Automatic annotation (TrEMBL):
CDD domains: ABC_Carb_Monos_I
Entry-linked PANTHER family: CARBOHYDRATE TRANSPORT ATP-BINDING PROTEIN MG119-RELATED, SUGAR ABC TRANSPORTER ATP-BINDING PROTEIN
GO molecular function terms listed in the Swiss-Prot or TrEMBL record: ATP binding; ATP hydrolysis activity
Protein name (record): Sugar ABC transporter ATP-binding protein
Location of the ABC transporter domain: 10-246
SUPFAM superfamilies in alphabetical order: P-loop containing nucleoside triphosphate hydrolases
Sorted UniProt keywords: ATP-binding, Nucleotide-binding
Length: 260
């Protein structure tokens, strides 16, 4: 008997998004499985950030189907995405530089006891979470503005994990980092994959993609222009799809026994 693969954790089928009279996304297909890193690639203006906004509920799609574990769902607001288990870390990180690490993690969801902020419990949970991810944020009570770019990125990712999401959307997490800090963030993403999270990674770095991603989905001019197994596809093939040197618009991601 042939085993039936589990449905993807998240699947987009024919998703379209328009701003005014401009079609920004047209008939987009995408699948993300648990324990898998999918790189979302494309030139500037390809629609990558808009697609993240569609999935996160910031800019709902006008057409198409979004499936969660094989069932159709509606993501019309960020609250809908969070309820499903989707967390997003945007490129600007959205951290408050004057607050400390604990304050940033629990901003808007502070823990209270007897009507007062439970600073000890919030600090305990912050330390526990960061120790599971990394030990490179030494001062939890210093202002976030004093941390390195890599440490701030770690804090932003840690904040997104407080709600125990099942899919994490990362928009250019290593764009402003040096080599050592980039390695730390890639190691962190790798550990999140090992914990079973599905990760959608927007990146312009082919080195990061080849080092970390399982699959790559290429967008060009708001449309799919290729799906690749990163382990077998060459860098030249992927870049050709990004630049439009090759046109490849499959209706759905290629299937494998693992579900892809």
């Amino acid at each position: 008997m042939v085993a039936v693969p589990d449905p993807p954790l998240l699947a987009l089928r024919g998703v379209c998004k328009r701003f005014g009279v401009v079609d920004v996304l047209t008939d987009i297909e995408l699948e993300i499985h648990s324990g898998q890193v999918v790189a979302l690639l494309g030139d500037n203006g390809a629609g990558k950030s808009t697609l993240v906004k569609v999935i996160s509920g910031v800019a709902p799609a006008e057409k198409g189907v979004i499936e969660w574990e094989g069932r159709s769902v509606h993501i019309r607001r960020p609250h809908d995405a969070r309820d499903l288990g989707i967390a997003t870390v945007y490129q600007d990180l959205a951290l408050c530089g004057n607050l400390d690490v604990v304050g940033n993690l629990f901003l808007g969801r502070e823990i209270r006891r007897y009507g007062f902020l439970d600073e000890m419990e919030m600090e305990r949970r912050t330390r526990e979470l960061l120790e599971r991810l990394t030990r490179r944020v030494p001062d939890l009570r210093g202002p976030v503005a004093s941390l390195s770019s890599g440490q701030r990125q770690t804090v932003a990712i840690a904040r997104s994990l407080l709600g125990e999401p099942r899919i994490l959307l990362l928009d250019e997490p290593t764009a402003a980092l040096g080599f050592e800090q980039t390695s730390e963030i890639l190691d962190l993403i790798d550990r999140l994959r090992d914990r079973g999270l599905g990760v959608l990674l927007i990146s312009h770095s082919m080195g990061d993609v080849k080092a970390l991603a399982d699959r790559a989905a290429v967008l060009r001019l708001g449309r799919n222009n290729g799906f690749f197994d990163v382990n077998t596809a060459s860098q030249e093939q992927i870049i050709a799809s990004i630049t439009g040197a090759t046109e490849n618009v499959p209706r759905r991601p290629a299937q494998r026994e693992s579900g892809w």
